[in-house]
Amino acid sequence: MPSERKRDEEKEKEGKKVTSKDKEKEKEKEKEKEKEKEKDRKRDGAVAGAMGKQRMLHPGNVLMERYEVQGLIGGGGFAQIYLAVDNTSKQNCAIKIEPTSSDIRRMKLESAVLLVLRGKTGVPEIKAMGKAPLGHYIVMQLVGRNLSDLRRQLPNKKISSRTLYRAMLQVARTLSLAHGAGFLHRDLKPSNCCVGFVDVTRIYLIDFGLTRQYLDKGDMVRKPRVGVGMRGTLRYMSLDAHARKDLGANNDLVAFLYTTIELGDGSLPWTRTRSADDIIKLKQAYVNEKLCAKQPKLTKLAEYIESLNYYSIPDYDKIFSLLEECNPTDLREDECYDWQKHTCVMDHSVQKEASTELSERGDTALIKK
Ligand SMILES: Nc1ncnc2c1ncn2[C@@H]1O[C@H](COP(=O)(O)OP(=O)(O)O)[C@@H](O)[C@H]1O
Ligand SMILES: [Mg+2]
User: Which string of DSSP letters, residue by residue, matches 129-187?
Assistant: First the structure.
């Protein structure tokens, strides 16, 4: 290693002897550093959680005599996502499958939301649902890479202000459609926002696996339940979710804000914090202008979201215009997005073989009863 040689030379210049013990110690230190880096990489979710688990589908499997599996492209806490080809239309599609052992209500709710929101901008189109020997699945429109993956590929691992607010405005619009239809997302985060597979300037909101119907038949906000299970992902969940309160539209917006801060700053103040109690303390300490210190234009939006409560019906038009105000004034409408300006891998990495890698990701959803 050149750095090692340099160090030896420097030590020799200083008249110090470089012993083999010194070298061994250094090597140990390097190894430890590497291990730490690897842990961080896994924690940050660079390796999809499903990659090391048993595959529920295999390349060549054909579902419904139509959808031919190509390989695994993703996975989070519960599901595995496969790339497939629709042999009838010859188009690509995605299959999301969850083991039969997991709670079927989650898939049912997810498909219910996708059906209600079918054809709406920013929602992948649901094509079919079914049951394979190992799991229940949904066949849906294939989308592109998620914003968590894309951020990591950009310079300084940040999405620039020339891209971020245009992208998040699209997410906000789709979220408002879901809320309007009576559904909360409850797991909004960078890995649940994806660019389009064909049009990479379009952003899709995916993964309605933790959704909840929060409006009743008369479009009234349902009464909050007490002592509910914890829903969401530690890093992005609101303080209400930490407190196991029933969640409202305002809590999706808190997750939306944390997502925007992370994508623009490259991290959140609690990114490296493990314990939930410490995360809570940091979330309490970092609000409004302190949270938005590196993106001060977001402060107004942060203050507005902070002012909402469980029963509030958010003023989405206000949210859209506050986001638009964050755009640089010289931004052209047709300007490329960061992932078009820089060389980013946009295709899915299709895993055909089972990998033995097991991982733990810091941004995986959790459900605690
Ligand atoms: N329709 C899709 N097209 C392409 N990739 C997808 C699609 N749905 C999900 N993915 C990828 O798989 C990952 C996990 O999918 P997701 O639905 O979020 O599952 P989980 O509920 O396990 O988090 C996403 O972050 C995304 O990168
Ligand atoms: Mg997800």
Answer: EEEETTEEEEEEE-EEEEHHHHHHHSGGG---HHHHHHHHHHHHHHHHHHHHTTEE-S-
Q: Tens digits of per-residue pLDDT, 194-221?
A: 999 999 999 999 999 999 999 988 888 9
Q: What distance in Å separates the CA atoms of residue 14 and residue 17, rounded to the nearest whole number?
A: 9
44-73: pLDDT as tens digits: 333 344 456 789 999 999 999 999 999 999
- Tell me the percentage of the chain whose pLDDT exceeds 70: 81
Distances (CA, A) of 209 to 62, 79, 173, 183, 259: 24, 9, 19, 11, 18
Please indicate whether residue 361, judged by its CB atom, sits closer than 6 Å to ligand 1: no
* 158 carries a ligand binding annotation: no
The reply to whether ligand 1 has any atom less than 6 angstroms from the CB of 135 is: no
241 C-alpha to ligand 2 centroid (Å): 17
Distance (angstroms) between ligand 1 centre and the Cα of 106 equals 15
Instruction: Quote the DSSP letter at residue 220.
Output: P
| Residue 252 designated active-site | no
Whether 206 is in the pocket of ligand 1, judged by its Cβ within 6 Å, is yes
Query: How far, in Å, CA of 83 to CA of 136, rounded?
Result: 16
Helix (H, G, I), strand (E, B) or coil at 258: helix
Residue 131: pLDDT band (50, 70, 90) is very high
Name the catalytic one among 187, 207, 252, 265.
187
What is the token pair recorded at 346? 């946009």
Residue nearest to atom 20 of ligand 1 (CA): 76
pTM here? 0.85
Reported in sequence order, the residue ranges of the chain that DSSP labels E, i.e. its strands, are: 62-63, 67-75, 80-86, 92-99, 126-132, 135-141, 143-146, 183-184, 193-196, 203-205, 212-213, 230-232, 366-368
